[in-house]
Amino acid sequence: MTINKNDEIETFYGVNGAYSYVKRMAESIIIDKVTLNNVEFYLGTIDENINGLLGLDVLIKSKSIINLDKMVIEFKDN
Asked: Is the pTM for the entire model greater than 0.70?
């Protein structure tokens, strides 16, 4: 990952300490068949076993349905 002059660095505090991430803005992202515009996201290391996280802001904006019975997230066409 390369940091540029337009990047913001934010620090989050959790149970295991403080973590710093680079905040960026994406013009658009595509999840399944849903396109979201102007999405903020963070780059950084969480844990070696985690490839990425979807925040509640993205799940709400994409009108996702979390099906805990099937353990899947369903993305609906808007």
From this structure: no
